[in-house]
Amino acid sequence: PSGSVTNADFRGMAPAASLFVLPIDLRIGPLISDTYLQETAASNNFIALGRTNAVISNNSWTYVNAFEYDAASASYDAAVRDAIPERPGSQPILYVFAAGNSGFGSTNGTVGEPDSILAPATAKNVITVGAIESSRNITNESVINGETNQLFLGFTDSDNEVASFSSRGNVGIGTEGDFGRFKPDVVAPGTFVVSTRSQNMDPNNLNPFVPDLGPNYRYDTGTSMAAPGVSGVLALMQEFFEQKLQRGFSPALMKALLINGARSVNANYDLSVSNAINFQGWGLVNLTNSLPAALTNATGETSWPVRFFDQSPTNALASGQRHTWNLALSTDARFVPLRVTLVWTDPPGNPGAGVKLVNDLDLIVSNLDSGQVFLGNNISAGSDFNQPGDTNALADFVNNVENVFLQPALGTNYSITVAGRRVNVNAVTANTNDVVQDYALVVAS
Questions:
Q1: Omega of the bond leading into 184 within 30 degrees of 0 (cis)
Q2: Alpha-carbon distance 13 to 65, whole Å?
Q3: Which end of the chain has fewer CB atoms at under 10 Å, N or C?
Q4: Distance between CA atoms of 140 and 175, rounded to whole angstroms?
Q5: CATH 2.60.120.380 fits 301-444, yes or no
Q6: At a CB cut-off of 8 Å and minimum separation 6, what does 378 contact?
Q7: How far is CA 40 from the centre of its chain?
Q8: By the 8 A CB rule, do 386 and 410 touch?
Q9: CB 237 within 8 A of CB 287
Q10: How far apart are CA 418 and CA 312, in angstroms?
Q11: 318-328 b/e with 16+ CB inside 10 Å = b?
């Protein structure tokens, strides 16, 4: 919100956005069902407003002690594709979920509890958000030998560390492969964030060491604060697509752009999918990287620094099929990393199965100058860049997000391939005659 009604000094991430708020539970009455939340959000967007693009749904909540992919997770995976399947066409929802606050790490952004992300944030197709610290001049007073000392709270002394409470990944370690499924997807500031304050809140519950912000606002902490920031970024991306580019988008494309633009929080974290614990996902969200201003300044789409291909019923893959593009980098592009991100909206998995991935696509980038081949997500521990392999190497069979990040000056000419390794279920509702999987692809340099 803009804060204009209360004449506040604070503005939201997307201050001109319109909000539609749904309750999760009530003091009197039953818990609101997942189906109700999904169908109501879609109905408001597609029926009441007549919109055709996916609605953005922020969810700053999780189920208690649900550290697995369950029926709720599967239902949200389905709703990302179509929240009301009995109605004609698709009603997709771009879901953003807080990862949870069960990380039990240290205030220096290390250690913690792996596989502590809570459902429905364990779903494959949603955007799962962890939290980093916020650098604030907030102190904890203590009296020693009659003198008052002001010590900075441990989780306010940095803006480049994952918060101690932020739930860690991966999801399903030992069940979905040896290392589990890569989650969270991204991180955002979630410690002492200025947020709205309920009029019914008991002021005695406020932290006495935190500055009072009046009756309408308060400092708050948690991945529930990080997720709305990401939803606000997505709202700005939505506005850019609809007003500047005048085109639609799928949840898969928005997720791919968000992940492609993210960067490691600091050098102590990396992007390996096979770590024993996942702190930051693919990194800290950065809107400037995801949608640089040159997208509207450059002449012609071929000169954009970020190229993207959205999912389409006519551009989908069956098992054994592949799509390949050749890429020649410009002189300027050779001196910055090449980043390729593949995301697909996978059909809901079986909660009782081991690996929850239903349709398996592979991302393969070949350096045509050197002959090196880079497989999606083949990133070693301690690195933010892919290592070369070969087409016979074991490809990722767990995740529906695959990345190839290459250091600059490795070459000029590349080929980018998306291959249908195993497509078991038709994911494209508009294509009823084939068993195919569509996808979104983002290339940035």
A1: yes
A2: 30
A3: N
A4: 42
A5: yes
A6: 386, 387, 389, 393, 396
A7: 23
A8: no
A9: yes
A10: 14
A11: eeeeeeeeebe
Domain ranges of the chain: 34-261, 301-444
Q: Which residues pair with 187 in a beta bridge?
A: 130, 284
Measured in residues, the chain has a length of 445
* Model pLDDT for residues 211-270, shown as the tens digit of each residue: 778 888 888 899 999 999 999 999 999 999 988 888 889 999 999 999 999 999 999 999
SS3 assignment for the chain: CCCCCCCCCCCCCCCCCCCCCCCCCCCCCCCCCHHHHHHHHHHHHHHHCCCCCCEEEEECCCCCCCCCCCHHHHHHHHHHHCCCCCCCCCCCEEEEEECCCCCCCCCCCCCCCCCCCCCCCCCCCCEEEEEECCCCCCEEEEEECCEEEEEECHHHCCCCCECCCCCCECECCCCCCCCCECCCCEEEECCCEEEECCCCCCHHHCCCCCCCCCCCEEEECCHHHHHHHHHHHHHHHHHHHHHHHCCCCCHHHHHHHHHHHCECCCCCCCCCCCCCCECCCCCECCHHHHCCCHHHHCCCHHHCCEEEECCCCCCCECCCCEEEEEEECCCHHHHCCEEEEEECCCCCCCCCCCCCCCCEEEEEEEECCCCCEEECCCECCCCCCECCECCCCCCCCCCCEEEEEECCCCCCEEEEEEEEEECCCCCCCCCCCCCCECCEEEEEC
Tell me: the pLDDT tens digits for 341-352?
Answer: 999 999 999 999
Is residue 406 within 8 Å of 416, Cβ to Cβ? no
Pairing label, strands 127-132, 139-144: unpaired
Residue pair 133/157 in contact by the 8 Å Cβ criterion: yes
pTM of the model: 0.93
Alpha-carbon distance 266 to 268, whole Å?
A: 5
Tell me the C-alpha distance between 141 and 270, whole Å. 35
**Angle, alpha carbons 427-126-396 (nearest 5°):** 65
- Name the residue among 38, 11, 7 with its Cα closest to residue 22: 38
**Which tokens is 8 given?**
């506040």
Backbone angles phi, psi at 35, to 5 degrees: -60, -45
pLDDT tens-place string over residues 122-167: 999 999 999 999 887 666 555 555 565 555 566 667 788 999 999 9
CATH number for domain 34-261, candidates 1.10.10.10, 3.30.1490.10, 3.65.10.10, 3.40.50.200: 3.40.50.200
